[in-house]
């Protein structure tokens, strides 16, 4: 049986979900709602969706709808998702899950109480590149994880409800969780941000996570960059990766390179011997599949099988907890803020 899905919010991102829902054999785009009537009408017309409305409640309460996708601005996610869950609908929500950890926590609990699926669109976790990185990491091919260093900058849309951290960092935080072994969890976050335009919140900033094994993850976020860069370097003991998401011909490069140290013997004037290894670079062939196609499939299958999706509400909540700690760190001038390890690990079970 196909899952009948209503999409709320069809601005920039929502139509991509409508397209994937209407082309998947597992789902049917049954309604779209947007407070902007022209957007609702044009998206519905383009993808043959039978219902176009300006009233989200028409979608949330309709008997003809099994599930709801929420692609509205972040400040509306908690209220819309809560109404959908209360009406017995499964929910796929855009990142970030909500604009506070407490709201996110209530949404996760409500979904569990009602035995409904609450899934995050953590899109990157469904790309072939991130799946390949996770495979390399989990198989041991890369060796021991050392660092994650990401640049995610462009001339971005200045959002009024969330800052650049809440807009862009969910991508890196969800990727990190997906690719790292479960034994490595973040223990503290430090962040600094800047608001050169005076919009009331940071438009650019730097976020660093210290992990439980001492390794480091760093993310550089900026809405005010003249060029778009989406490059991540992942260092590990056996191999290192460079992921350039804007280069479809070679998104991922695997370098057989490394740096090792050993104690020097007494005759040496140095206390440490450092050896460098630079071998071949390999660019693996990656299947070009639209990530949202996999997102929609995972949503439909998790509803059909009544199981937790790969990127469930808890994953969204863990991201919110880090973002809140980053906000505290920014307010305190960048000092590290400890993360609640129990909440992180407990939420993962
Ligand atoms: N996963 C990704 O890679 C990705 C990419 C872009 C955006 N997003 C997320 O998608 C969401 C939407 O972003 P966007 O760039 O499409 O924003 P947008 O402003 O272009 O579109 C939002 C739409 O929601 C409508 N809307 C606002 N409040 C509403 C309400 N209460 N009921 C019904 N409609 C309402 C607006 O009229 C607008 O058409 C955000 O959460 C954003 O973070 C995710």
Q: What is the subunit organization of this protein?
A: single chain
Low-confidence residue ranges: none
Approximate strand percentage? 25-35%
Count of DSSP strands: 15
The biggest sheet, with number of strands, parallel, antiparallel or mixed sense and barrel status, is:
9 strands, mixed
Query: What Rg is obtained from the alpha carbons, in whole angstroms?
Result: 22 Å
Helix count equals 10
Q: Terminal Cα separation, in Å?
A: 30 Å
Q: How much helicity do the residues have?
A: 25-40%
Name the overall outline. globular
Order of helices and strands: EHEHEHEHEHEHEHEEEEEEEHHEH
**Classification by helices and strands:** alpha/beta
Mean pLDDT: 95
Small-molecule binders: nicotinamide-adenine-dinucleotide
* Order of adjacent strands in the largest pleated sheet: 14-13-12-11-7-10-9-8-15
């Amino acid at each position: 049986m196909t899952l009948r899905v209503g999409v709320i919010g069809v601005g920039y991102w929502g139509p991509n979900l409508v397209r994937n829902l209407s082309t998947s054999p597992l789902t049917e785009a049954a309604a779209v709602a947007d407070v902007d009537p022209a957007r609702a009408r044009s998206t519905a017309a383009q993808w043959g969706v039978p219902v176009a409305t300006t009233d989200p409640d028409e979608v949330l309460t309709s008997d003809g709808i099994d599930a709801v996708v929420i692609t509205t601005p972040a400040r509306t996610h908690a209220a819309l998702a809560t109404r959908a869950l209360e009406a017995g609908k499964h929910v796929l929500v855009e990142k970030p899950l909500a604009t506070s950890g407490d709201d996110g926590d209530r949404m996760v609990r409500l979904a569990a109480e009602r035995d409904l699926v609450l899934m995050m669109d953590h899109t990157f976790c469904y790309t072939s590149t991130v799946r390949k990185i996770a495979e390399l990491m989990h198989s041991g091919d890369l060796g021991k994880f050392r660092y994650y260093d990401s640049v995610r900058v462009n001339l971005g849309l200045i959002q009024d409800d969330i800052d650049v951290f809440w807009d862009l960092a969910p991508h890196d935080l969800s990727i990190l969780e997906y690719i790292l072994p479960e034994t490595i969890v973040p223990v503290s976050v430090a962040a600094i941000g800047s608001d050169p335009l005076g919009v009331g919140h940071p438009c650019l900033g730097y976020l660093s996570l210290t992990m439980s094994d001492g390794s480091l993850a760093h993310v550089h976020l900026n809405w005010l960059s003249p060029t778009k860069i989406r490059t991540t370097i992942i260092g590990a003991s056996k191999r290192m990766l460079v992921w350039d998401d804007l280069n479809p011909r070679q998104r991922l490069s695997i370098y057989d390179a490394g740096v090792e140290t050993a104690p020097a013997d007494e005759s040496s004037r140095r206390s440490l011997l450092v050896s460098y290894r630079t071998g071949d670079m390999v660019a693996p062939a990656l299947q070009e599949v639209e990530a949202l196609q996999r997102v929609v499939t995972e949503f439909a299958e998790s509803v059909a099988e009544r199981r937790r999706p790969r990127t469930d509400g808890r994953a969204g909540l863990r991201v919110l907890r880090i973002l809140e700690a980053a906000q505290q760190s920014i307010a305190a001038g960048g000092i590290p803020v400890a993360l609640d390890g129990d909440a992180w690990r407990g939420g993962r079970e």
